[in-house]
Amino acid sequence: MPQSLQHPEALAAAEPEVPAASFDFPLVNRTGYLLNKAGLLLLSEAEHALEGQGMRMRYFYVLAALEGGHLLSQQDLSRLLSLDPTTMVSLIDEMESAGHVERRRNPADRRRYILHLTEAGRQALAEASQAVASVEDGFFAAVPEGDRDRLKATLRQLLADRWPSVIACVEPPAPRAG
């Protein structure tokens, strides 16, 4: 067996580290690929940070989506978060059992349920938000604050017409003086 296969760390140590931008690898010039790769890395780090709280990112996303007080059903959340409806039902069952979410009848349509964040859910969200914010701060540490703000604004602009308006990718209108 060649020496490099017996000791792969020796092979890695012998190869100089090359910055990604200098690779002859066309994907590093594709914005969509870079966004996807960054998102996957950030998601992985956030999932790891939430493990200690017994939570996954999709659980966090549901809590965060409900924090805004919108009248959202399981179906709404399934579409908004791009989760399979069956997965969403199981997730809401889990969240309801944990006391983080309540299903309440929709007063406008008694056949549907609206999801509400409980006080325990708000507490779980607050703790998880700290963990996720810490991961995001670390992930974006090399990016100046102004650039982070521009990135967020640009992403909101790109997504504004691609998701239902309830996601609020655009800043809400200022309240009327009255």
Distinctive features:
178 residues, mainly alpha, disordered N terminus
Structure, explained:
The chain has 178 residues and is mainly alpha-helical. It is 56% helix and 8% strand. A hairpin with a 2-residue loop joins strand 1 and strand 2. Helix 4 (57-67) crosses helix 7 (119-139). It is globular and about 55 Å long. The model is unreliable at 1-8 and 168-173 (pLDDT under 50).
What spatial order of strands do you see in the largest sheet? 1-2
Query: What summary fits the major beta sheet?
Result: 2 strands, antiparallel
- Output the radius of gyration: 21 Å
**Structural class assignment:** mainly alpha
Mean pLDDT: 84
What oligomeric state is this?
A: single chain
Strand content: 5-15%
Brief write-up:
With 178 residues, the chain is mainly alpha-helical. 56% of the residues lie in helices and 8% in strands.
Helix and strand layout, with pairings?
Layout: H1 3-6, H2 8-14, H3 31-51, H4 57-67, H5 74-80, H6 85-97, E1 101-106, E2 109-117, H7 119-139, H8 145-159
Helix pairs in contact: 3-7, 4-7, 5-6
